[in-house]
Amino acid sequence: MINKNYANLKESYLFTEIGRRVKAYTQANPDKKVIKMGIGDVTKPLCKAVTDAMNNAVIEMSTKEGFHGYGPEQGYDFLRNAVADYYKNFGVSLKSDEIFISDGAKSDLGNILDLFDKDCNVLVQDPVYPVYVDTNIMDGRKIYYADAVEKNGYLPMPSETCDADIIYICSPNNPCGAAYTRDMLEEWVSYANSRGAVILFDSAYEAFIEDAQVPHSIYEISGAETCAIEFCSLSKTAGFTGTRCGYTIVPEALVRDGFELRKLWLRRQTTKFNGVSYVVQRGAEAVFSAEGQKQIKEQIRYYKNNAAIIASTFDVLGISYTGGVNSPYIWLDCKCDSWEFFDKLLNEIQVVGTPGAGFGKNGEHHFRLTSFSTLENTTEAMERFKKLKL
Ligand code: PLP
Predict the structure, then answer these.
(1) What does the alpha-carbon distance between residue 335 and residue 364 come to, in Å, rounded to a whole number?
(2) Does the pLDDT value for residue 38 go beyond 90?
């Protein structure tokens, strides 16, 4: 009667355990200021362009003429068109029918699995955003792991020995902060097309990309439209972690076993999802306006400046790390058990990060810091790092 695959899930202890240790420490040391650089939530509020648009939408909703009830499951045309226009910046041409507005990337990354057989093989990278793993364990799929380690720059490439039907790629990557170049993604796309595999491309951090060699979208690669689904989110791009909005792109040309995946996804969404609220979609539309882009880019610059402060401190201290350039995450080599390092930072300098072990076996001996804190706290945390005996 019960889906017993749930028994195969590891207890989700990572952030609970971090919370427990921080709480115990602050209770025992109430005079100490703890700086949190662990959970990937943002600290900057929604920008004015977004809140103005949402305020206007709320007022509209209070009028007979402007009230909106159930909306289209796939999202309002105004937002899908805004997303399609945004992709033109990357030279990508999308039909608005290929764009599905979501309440964030996490739900769609899990829900998309409705389209695939339970006996599909799955390839994820290790370390990995845990959602890719847990959602497949819930369905009982076999999971292969590709090592993302220092030797390959934390960017594994296709291997002929792995027989994967579904391939997850997160670029820029959470937790490593590494990002695939165009050439590397070309290899993945050609590999997926040659095997009839489907790439689930998570571009949640595309807005942090600086390097011209790093694509913002998998559809910048020719041939991706026949093998890839893309998931994006406004959570980190525009501070929508609590507001909830993202989008998923399923190209018309993506066909497997005679089925057009876009049609299957539309059928799935119209059956199981009732859309994102009108007010939130108006806020999301404003993210893509000229003023919205200016304001969110300012916020991203602020976080990237935090990342640069962390990186330059680690350069001086001789700590090896990856990330920070095209990503809000810094992934450092802590050269010891990652939970031991967590305790050391908490006890000695009161800085909280995320132990790499929580992201997979290759996360051991690594540690993730985020740049989503305030400038003041990031600066203070780095001053404290300088006093740490490593
Ligand atoms: N994908 C990655 C790689 C993430 O790190 C996150 C959030 O941390 C998400 C997706 C989920 O984003 P959302 O807030 O849109 O659900």
Answers:
(1) 9
(2) no
